[in-house]
């Protein structure tokens, strides 16, 4: 973590290990996944193209990507470049994220652009905020079309190089060659278990939405570029575009917790940034969450101050508490609430959730038999996710997704319902079958086993139809 006060880095600290139990210590040069903090870098790239006259915020997306389609033809025709960035497109929360995660998978950016037309809207265009990732991938392809090079090439050339973010990585690279890379971890009881990665990191489809990695030193340089830009940095991105990126463009509902903790009255999304008032001071920030890593970057522009931290483990509550304490350092330094107070408050909130808002007890689950699932086995297809199979193997029924190999698991029975338990520890899902009727095939719907599970496991948006028998 690092803290900036009045434009200067006044505090940094690193703790922990790149891999639990390895003894390899985190350093200021250790690379972390910054996850959705990548979005602000993507919008900065777009702002550069606007400054260069290669792009306009109100250009239709189809000007750059003629093949782009949303579910509603009117929305397709009226979707501007700016609309890709404000989470107000009509896509349901996390809509289509199963084309991005879990990684690795075989979905391409072309697949995403094609698949968007099949994802049914969750609300009307520009009417409300619902976080999505797919349209940031589309925004990266808009940048590529306008800039005449791939997103990865443009990011290196137009953002990393001029700002001297020398260790930030996007695209294909090698962990061993770059060196000092944090490994993501998942929680298993009281242990942190590494999520292994190959030495060769491939270019990933999700990069414009959440695929950049940086170290602490570069993230502090990135933050200072927004707080106290040099003359050269103001040439890199104009004051006009800087204001556009961090201006409110779409209102976000203010939660009861934020009102109680921060006395906030308004919250909004800009282009790749969130913003709100905290104790009467303006805060511009974003968080990042990606399998086994968490991050937060926060700016208090009126004070030329801010902070950044990155964690290579599952740390939702830790991020909330640490972010709150660091923010209060600036906005309410006399606040008597400490780390324990906020941690206790989160535990109390979790304990008060109703039973239907918590994951069920699965201790009684058992593998479903091939006999009881005989009517439901076969190959199924969803128009945007593609094909899956539910077929007998070694006395069990196995679920396998064609383009997402991590979504492979065993079908289990729990009471009167069926679920799929993924081999790789992903968020398990209910399976609900509906029998065929005259002229209609057997269908399969899915839902998160844990209602509080990450919205990127958007099983609820899938609508499978049976296409054939198992081989």
TrEMBL record:
Gene3D superfamilies for this protein: DD-peptidase/beta-lactamase superfamily
Spans traversing the lipid bilayer: none
Domain Beta-lactamase-related: from-to ranges: 2-317
Protein name, per record: Beta-lactamase
């Amino acid at each position: 973590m690092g803290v900036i006060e009045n434009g200067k880095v006044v505090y940094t600290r690193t703790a922990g290990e790149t891999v639990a139990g390895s003894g390899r210590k985190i350093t200021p040069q250790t690379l972390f996944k910054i996850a959705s903090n990548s979005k602000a870098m993507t919008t900065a790239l777009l702002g550069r193209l606007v400054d260069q006259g290669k792009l306009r915020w109100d250009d239709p997306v189809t000007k750059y990507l003629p093949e782009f389609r949303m579910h509603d033809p009117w929305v397709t025709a009226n979707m501007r470049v700016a609309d890709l960035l404000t989470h107000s497109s009509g896509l349901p929360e996390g809509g289509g994220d199963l084309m991005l995660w879990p990684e690795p998978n075989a979905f391409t950016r072309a697949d995403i652009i094609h698949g968007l037309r099949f994802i049914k809207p969750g609300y009307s265009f520009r009417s409300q905020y619902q976080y999505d990732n797919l349209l940031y991938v589309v925004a990266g392809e808009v940048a590529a079309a306008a800039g005449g090079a791939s997103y990865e090439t443009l990011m290196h050339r137009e953002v990393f190089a001029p700002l001297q973010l020398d260790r930030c990585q996007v695209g294909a690279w090698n962990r061993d060659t770059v060196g000092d890379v944090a490994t993501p971890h998942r929680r298993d009881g009281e242990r942190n278990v590494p999520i292994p990665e190959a030495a060769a990191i491939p270019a990933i489809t999700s990069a414009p939405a959440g695929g950049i990695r940086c170290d602490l030193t570069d993230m502090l340089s990135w933050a200072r570029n927004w707080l106290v830009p040099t003359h050269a940095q103001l040439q890199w991105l104009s004051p006009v575009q800087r204001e556009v990126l961090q201006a409110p463009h779409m209102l976000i509902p203010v939660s009861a917790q934020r009102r109680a903790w921060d006395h906030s009255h308004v919250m909004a999304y800009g282009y790749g940034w969130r913003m709100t008032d905290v104790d009467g001071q303006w805060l511009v920030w974003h968080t990042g969450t990606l399998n086994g890593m968490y991050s937060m970057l926060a700016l208090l522009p009126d004070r030329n101050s801010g902070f950044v931290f990155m964690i290579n483990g599952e740390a939702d509550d830790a991020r909330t508490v640490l972010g709150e304490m660091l923010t209060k350092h600036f906005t309410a330094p006399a606040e008597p609430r400490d780390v324990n107070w906020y941690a206790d408050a989160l535990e109390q909130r979790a304990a008060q959730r109703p039973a239907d808002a918590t994951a069920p007890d699965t201790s009684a689950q058992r593998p479903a038999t091939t006999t009881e699932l005989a009517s439901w086995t076969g190959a199924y297809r969803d128009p945007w996710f593609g094909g899956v199979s539910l077929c007998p193997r070694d006395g069990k029924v196995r679920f396998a997704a064609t383009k997402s190999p991590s979504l492979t698991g065993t079908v289990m029975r729990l009471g009167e319902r069926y679920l799929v338990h993924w081999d790789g520890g992903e968020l398990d899902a209910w399976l609900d079958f509906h029998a065929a009727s005259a002229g209609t095939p057997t269908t399969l719907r899915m839902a998160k086993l844990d209602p509080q599970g990450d919205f990127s496991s958007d099983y609820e948006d899938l609508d499978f139809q049976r296409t054939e028998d198992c081989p």
